[in-house]
């Protein structure tokens, strides 16, 4: 039946999400500024992006992989610039103004979801990360095992979502102990961390690329 793939999928999805990169910092910042639900929904956008890349990696969609490989440099540059811009925006944001805006208007969870989905999907190296996971665990189902394929991919999404649920839950526990001044510093640290993460990751990638 193929249901044994669920655990492998959960492990892969969870493991791929745990490293605290720019998207993790963004979800933490949104949890503190806009609430746990906003942070979790933002994480779901990242989880969906990881699932899309897992599908490509698991079933070797050669056209898409070939396109990504041919445009990898430009995709990486674009993604790095977008994330650096995001980090600078967070760094210079005023938490008092952000909180006032949240009280005066409804929270746009759809925007939170889509923004992290688009930000995460600009990192095509995730395809090769999932290649490694699938090859290491040897869990890619046979072509005709449709149930196994669906369960494996569903498990990846569940595993990734579980990580974001745990992370935003832990951050939310300490939210009430954070005042505006601390929130101001958190924005500074989060914004700077995103920029530093991106510069280091891009520099390492460029070194390996050449």
Give a structural overview.
- It is a single chain.
- The protein has 210 residues and is mainly α.
- The protein has one domain (5-72, 95-175).
- Helices cover 82% and strands 0% of the residues.
- The protein is built from ten helices and no strands.
- The chain has helices at 5-17, 22-34, 36-59, 62-70, 72-91, 95-104, 109-121, 125-137, 146-173, 180-209.
- Helix 2 (22-34) crosses helix 9 and helix 2 (22-34) runs antiparallel to helix 10 (180-209).
Précis, in short:
By secondary structure, the chain is mainly alpha-helical. 82% of the residues lie in helices and 0% in strands. The chain has one domain (5-72, 95-175).
Indicate the radius of gyration in whole angstroms: 18 Å
Largest sheet: none
Helix/strand class: mainly alpha
Gap between N and C termini: 45 Å
The backbone outline, from C-alpha atoms, is globular
- Could you report the average pLDDT, rounded to the nearest whole number? 78
Q: Are there runs of 5+ residues with pLDDT below 50, and where? A: none
Total strands: the figure is: 0
The percentage of residues in β strands lies in under 5%
The SSE string, one letter per element, is HHHHHHHHHH
- How many H/I helical runs? 10
Q: How many domains is the backbone divided into?
A: 1
| Overall helicity | over 70%
Task: Based on the model shown, name its key terms.
210 residues; mainly alpha; 82% helix; 0% strand
Question: How are the SSEs placed, and which strands pair?
Answer:
Blueprint lengths: L4 H13 L4 H13 L1 H24 L2 H9 L1 H20 L3 H10 L4 H13 L3 H13 L8 H28 L6 H30 L1
Helix pairs in contact: 1-9, 2-3, 2-9, 2-10, 3-7, 3-8, 3-9, 5-10
